[in-house]
Amino acid sequence: MDGPMRPRSASLVDFQFGVVATETIEDALLHLAQQNEQAVQEASGRLGSFREPRIVEFVFLLSEQWCLEKSVSYQAVEILERFMVKQAENICRQATIQPRDNNRESQNWRALKQQLVNKFTLRLVSCVQLASKLSFQNKIISNITVLNFLQALGHLHTKEELLESELDVLKSLNFQINLPTPLAYVEMLLEVLGYNGCLVPAMRLHATCLTLLDLVYLLHEPIYESLLRASIENSTPSQLQGEKFISVKEDFMLLAVGIIAASAFIQNHECWSQVVGHLQSITGIALASIAEFSYAILTHSVGANTPGRQQSIPPHLAARALKTVASSNT
Question: What are the tens digits of pLDDT across the range 206-219?
């Protein structure tokens, strides 16, 4: 890289609550709610999600190495996921329009898969670089920095190939890469909670929310699988139930209230009911749904590295989460 960079705690520097006019907050909250409703409706036709824990961790660690804000790492994951879903849809579409020839079809699948594999690291880094360009609080990651990083991993590329990779991501997503992230919903709801007289300070909740949001991204599938089983009261959901549940995974307002409720329980469980009540009145989400989601987050995040669990989170993030929980109980 250009030089050694020290990771810093992103999204906490110079961050303040309670400085925005209430009219502005009301307008912004309404806009987020409308945006969320549209995303939930559009999710019904999607194939699914592409969110491997190791890939998410890669994006998070790379963002820390390049000193990017937390919002950038979340947006990079969202861009990468939608790009990969588009790639999968394109492969399926090509397979349906080509003449039926089992041998040729198998070769085409292997060729397309190998092409994705060969360029995946380049595409991932391009998603991080594109996300950094959308943030006003970050320096844009230079092409030299990216090329040096890829070379250190054994991937030799030119500046032209790097630009072509960014353009490929942009074209695949119709240049719609300024995607919402759950963090925007979390911070907006924390702002409203502060004006509503929440007993737990917004800044304390914010720090814990960032940690739990990291863990939800890393443990995305097991958390939502447990939420699905709880919602249908059945340990073996059908394929149809799973497909219908895809829209729930795109409900960032629901995720935000679950994150905040879980953070409130960690910070001060005696104030949990008050915080949840405020969240219910603000969003209209049922108390039972908030409780179920916060319980799913807590059970998976705090117990992620206990013996006997198949799912585990990266040690450095697990330690950070457990330290947060321990310090809040002292």
Answer: 999 999 999 999 99
